[in-house]
Write a structure and sequence with these properties.
The chain has a domain at 60-100. Helices cover 15% and strands 45% of the residues. It contains 1 helix and 5 strands; from the N terminus they run ββαβββ. It has one helix at residues 26-40, and strands at residues 2-11, 16-23, 61-66, 76-82, 85-98. It is globular.
Amino acid sequence: MKVFLVIFEWSTEDDSDVDIEAFASYEKATIRFNERIREEKTCLSWVHEAFGENDEILDGYDFDECQPDMRLETYAYWDITNKYNWQMHDYIAIVQLEVK
């Protein structure tokens, strides 16, 4: 049996945490993965400062992503770090886990 984990690892200057949620399908995990990204881009997170009006990444931030592929059910991630303050970091991923 497969489960799909949505892992949200974040850190700021004064705190950090990891949140892991398990889903029975890749589709459900992908929905939650995209929700997490949208949540991080709101003014409640430091991440919203990293994106411009057209959702482009601004100078001063390292950004990388690998979008989910519903057909292949591949590993996906969304990763952003403040170049000038490495403590400011968000990482969201979908990971497949085989339950034995």
